[in-house]
Structures are given as structure tokens and as C-alpha cells.
Amino acid sequence: PARPRVFSGIQPTADSFHLGNYLGALRHWVALQETHEAFYCVVDLHAITAGHDPKVLRQRSRVAAAQLFALGLDPERSTLFVQSQVPEHPQLAWVLGCITGFGEASRMTQFKDKSQKQGSDRSSVGLFTYPILQAADILLYQADAVPVGEDQRQHLELSRDLAQRFNSLFGKTFTVPAPHIVKDTAKITDLQEPTAKMSKSSSSPAGIIDLLEEPARTAKKIRSAVTDTGREIVFDAEGKPGIANLLTIYSALSGRDIDDLVAAYAGKGYGDLKKDLAEVVTEFVRPIQERTNGYLDDPAQLDKLLAAGAEKARAVAGPTLRAAYERIGF
Ligand code: ADP
Ligand code: NA
User: Could you say which residues bind L-tryptophan here (predicted)?
Assistant: First the structure.
């Protein structure tokens, strides 16, 4: 039987993915290749909704794709492509926009949050219609499943509503995507502010571990991570968020249970934990960096891989768009 389809996208809005991106999302992308037919997209159309520099965007899209291949996305098994190379995305988004209520779109909390930060008069129409483009991304591939974190639940709900609405207005065209809830998805927090999410918009670069940064710099950040003033290494996300975060990262990258780690560090100090974790993380990123650089050092080959990905994507997206056009009378 055919494998279920999964779709996911990530924005090329930083010079490197960070450890939170990897542990919260990208490692699951890699794992899903085993069970699903996977479509993964570097969503550069989404990345221009809040202002950008063209040169930087182009470079970031390439580095994002190189990192994804380096992390283990296999172009033989999965389809990895850059969104702007598949024109069906904005074409379907227009159609879906025409069956989305203005009020419905206005209720998206992520738009409210982001536009509030920018000053709502200055935020773009693209930022407002972003979730509609996201629905098009998913529906074009007839995705059965979409891995989602809490922050994307409302957007996936909109995608489901739009699929159902289109199907009932014009006839069955789209698969209604279901959330793929990943068990034990690690939420990684900021090393300097251990109650806040590690994020590219974190207030201090010392709080974020970028996959592509100098390993010595990573080791230093881990050694300087904020912890409490206690001495005991136990997992207590409320009382000891800094130590809990270090244990979470350690466990996720080493495959060792948190309980095992706690037992192994009984009687040892925070400094020992940090020193060992620094080694675990730097050993983890080193080969990823080497492979990423390998892809970036051969731009023609990377272009070829991405062109092939876009072609595979269009082989699915094209027929979906044509079916939708046909049903609406084009
Ligand atoms: P950022 O928070 O740095 O802006 P994005 O919002 O672009 O990152 O997130 C890309 C993906 O990485 C999403 O699937 C998101 O849930 C995941 N992610 C981001 N930060 C973390 C984190 N600190 N812990 C776990 N997952 C995260
Ligand atoms: Na974010």
C-alpha cells in the first residue's frame, strides 16, 4: 500500500538552523522518511512577508537546503524543494483566498502577534494572507499528515477548513490533512533565559546554539548557560529550567534516558554536566557542518538537486492545481 503523505515547510529566515529547530522539528522530518512519502519545502515565499534583503534571502535558501540534506533528508526518498520554484503554490493560494472569510483570516493569532510587533499599519497583506499560502502548500500535495507544534495548530485548522469547504463547494478535490503529533518532541529553551524558547529572535546570541556556528563558540555558550544556584542535577522543568534544558538536549542527542543521565551525574556538579554536554553537541554538529559545506562548495550540484526536487514536487502539485481549476470553472 502507498505510504501516507506528509508535508512540512521551514522558512529560510536565519543564517543557520538552531538546535531548537532540529530537536523540535527537523529530526522528525528525517525520521518521517521511514514511514511516509515526504514533501519538504524551504518556504521562501513566506520569508518575504516581513521585509528582507534579496541577496541574503537567496543565500539563506541555499544554506537551508544544504543543511536539510546534511541532516539526512534523502533526495531519493523524499522531495525537498524551494517554494518559489513551484508556481502552483501562489496560484492555489489565490483560489483558496477567495473562499476564505476576511473575518476568519483576521482571527489568526499569529498574525495578530506579529503585526502588533511591527505596528499593524506597517505589516504587509502578505503577512495577513500567510496562512492561506500555507494551506496551499499542504493541499497541493494531498498531504495526509502535517507535523505541527502548538504554534501552528490554528493554521492547520484553517487548512483543514479550506480543504473541506472547497470539496463541498466544488467537489472532492483535496485530502483533508491531519495533524501529526510527534511524541516526546523536545522543546528547547534559551541558554541565557531558560524559561523562554530558544528562537532565532532570542534577545542574546549566547542563548542560541546554531548548527553552523564554530564548535568552540558552542562549547563556550554551553559552559556559560544560566542555571540555578543549587548543586544537584535533577530534572525539574519548573524549579530548575536551565538544568532541565541541558538534560533535554543531552538526552535527545545521545539517545540516553533523562533518568539514566540523572543517575550518572549523581554527586557531580553542573560544571561536569556542561563540559560533557559541550562535547556531545560539538561532536553532533561537526559532521553536519562538514556535509553542509560539502553541498555549499558545489553550487551546481546543489542547484541540480533542488531543480530535481522542484520537478518532483510539480509532478504532484500540477495535477492538483489543474483539478482545482477545472472544478472552479477555469
Ligand atoms: P524560531 O522560533 O527560531 O523563529 P521557527 O518559528 O522558524 O523558529 O520554527 C521552525 C520550526 O522549529 C518549527 O517547527 C518550530 O516548532 C521548531 N522550533 C523552533 N524553536 C524551537 C525550540 N526552541 N524548541 C523546539 N522546537 C522549536
Ligand atoms: Na518563530
Answer: 137
Contact 45, 84 (CB under 8 A): yes
The CA distance from 23 to 9, in Å, is 15
Closest-lying ligand 1 atom to the alpha carbon of residue 18: 3
Burial of 30 (0-12, 13-18, 19+ CB in 10 A): middle
Q: Which residues lie closer than 8 Å to 235 by C-beta, 6 or more apart?
A: 243, 244, 247, 258, 259, 262
221 is in an annotated binding site: no
Would the annotation count 283 as a binding residue?
A: no
Q: How far apart are CA 141 and CA 167, in angstroms?
A: 15
The yes-or-no answer on residue 197 being catalytic is: yes
SS3 at position 187: coil
d(CA 299, CA 309): 15
Q: pTM for the whole thing? A: 0.95
Of the bound ligands, which one is closest to the alpha carbon of residue 151? 1
Count, residues in the chain: 330
